[in-house]
């Protein structure tokens, strides 16, 4: 069987892969994108209708330039395609507990978000509990003493549309898509990489791996020791009082207790749907990705409503409209890894995104493409080096 050749092969076409393939094609690179499914799909981490985006990222300062640039790219893509990708409805980050809530390694997630907003000159308001209740009646149940951070430039992006739009643009610019093909092996050659993808074999000058939950198995050490895959559940509950929600309601993150489990996030009701998407984040590692249960039990639905929704958000019933399962692939410090593979020459790794990657994906794709083409990116990626785990 003959080997196909390309300049760059991108493995995995979720959030990061689609963005990277688009930016490579935009730069004139002969690029091939490979995915085991047909993206956008619901088998990985980049689905669920909506994903929060905000400039003051509580996970750390290194992410701020990425999300700023991503917002610009979403708007550029909207202008090119006519698709609605980015809904700038604002983001409200709240702490309604007497004690601080830790999240993604930050001891006080809301305070850290406020500090980043101040440090980077991000337009925002710090709200009291009474101000939150007055402006956003759906959060009427929050406790006195609550603190809120409202960022008007935040909101949500539509992941499936973003992926599809970038892949369509990449193809229009000359990129090739190979779908329904699992990459089973990468082999470094003199000056290139052999890629086994289903029944096909490609030889690429460079390979960029954006394989999410499948990265550890494909890449081996040290990734198999560093990365853990965690099952996540997304819920859409029926609204009881749609009129309680202002015409423009924000996406939100609500910290309502002292532990990692005492935090949820959600989105404004999408017009015409009559439901509200709410979710939490879980960090229990799967023993095997083959053991991932994609069903959501009645007990899970009941626990979610009792612990996260009831007493925290008004106007939402316990009736489930739909539920979905996705995964996070998580590093020990909840940060990203964007770096060269330590033993496979000409292979760049763009994973894991630790559950907060989609908002940054457009800019990461651009930065990784720049790094691939010229050896350096306009946005500094050094904070995501593999060496920090040494």
Automatic annotation (TrEMBL):
Protein species of origin: Paraburkholderia phenazinium
Keyword annotations from UniProtKB, A to Z: FAD, Flavoprotein, Oxidoreductase
Pfam families, alphabetized: DAO (PF01266)
Superkingdom to which the source organism belongs: Bacteria
This protein's name: Sarcosine oxidase
The keyword DNA repair appears for this protein: no
MF GO annotations: flavin adenine dinucleotide binding; sarcosine oxidase activity
Cofactors that this protein relies on: FAD
Annotated FAD dependent oxidoreductase domain residues: 8-371
Residues in the signal sequence: none
SUPFAM superfamilies linked: FAD-linked reductases, C-terminal domain (SSF54373), FAD/NAD(P)-binding domain (SSF51905)
């Amino acid at each position: 069987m003959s080997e196909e050749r390309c300049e760059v092969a991108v493995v995995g076409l979720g959030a990061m892969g689609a963005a990277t393939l688009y930016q490579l094609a935009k730069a004139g690179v002969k690029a091939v994108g490979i995915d085991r499914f047909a993206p956008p799909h619901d088998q990985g981490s980049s689905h669920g209708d909506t994903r929060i985006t905000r400039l003051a990222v509580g996970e750390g300062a290194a992410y701020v330039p990425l999300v700023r640039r991503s917002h610009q790219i979403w708007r550029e893509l909207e202008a090119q395609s006519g698709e609605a990708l980015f809904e700038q409805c604002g983001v409200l980050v709240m702490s309604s507990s007497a004690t601080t809530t830790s999240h993604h390694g930050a001891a006080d997630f809301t305070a850290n978000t406020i500090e980043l907003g101040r440090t980077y000159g991000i337009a925002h308001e710090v709200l009291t509990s009474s101000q939150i209740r007055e402006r956003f009646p759906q959060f009427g149940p929050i406790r006195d003493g609550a603190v809120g951070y409202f960022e008007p430039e935040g909101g949500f992006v539509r992941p499936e549309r973003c992926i599809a739009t970038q892949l369509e643009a990449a193809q229009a610019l000359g990129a090739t898509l190979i779908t329904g093909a699992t990459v089973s092996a990468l082999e470094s050659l003199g000056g290139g990489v052999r890629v086994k993808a289903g029944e096909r074999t490609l030889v690429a000058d460079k390979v960029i791996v954006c394989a999410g939950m499948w990265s550890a198995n494909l890449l081996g050490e040290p990734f198999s020791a560093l990365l853990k895959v965690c099952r996540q559940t997304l819920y859409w509950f029926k609204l009881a009082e749609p009129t309680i929600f202002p015409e423009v309601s924000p996406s939100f993150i609500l910290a309502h207790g002292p532990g990692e489990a005492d935090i949820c996030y959600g989105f404004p009701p999408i017009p015409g749907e009559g439901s509200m998407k709410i979710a939490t984040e879980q960090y229990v590692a799967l023993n095997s990705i083959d053991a991932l249960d994609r069903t959501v039990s009645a007990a899970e639905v009941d626990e979610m409503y009792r612990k996260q929704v009831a007493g925290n958000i008004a106007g939402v019933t316990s009736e489930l409209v739909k539920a979905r399962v996705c995964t996070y692939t998580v590093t020990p410090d909840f940060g990203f890894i964007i770096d060269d593979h330590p033993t496979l020459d000409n292979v760049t790794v763009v994973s894991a995104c630790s559950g907060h990657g989609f908002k940054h994906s457009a800019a990461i794709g651009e930065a990784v493409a720049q790094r691939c083409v010229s050896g350096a990116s306009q946005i500094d990626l050094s904070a995501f080096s593999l060496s920090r785990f040494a």
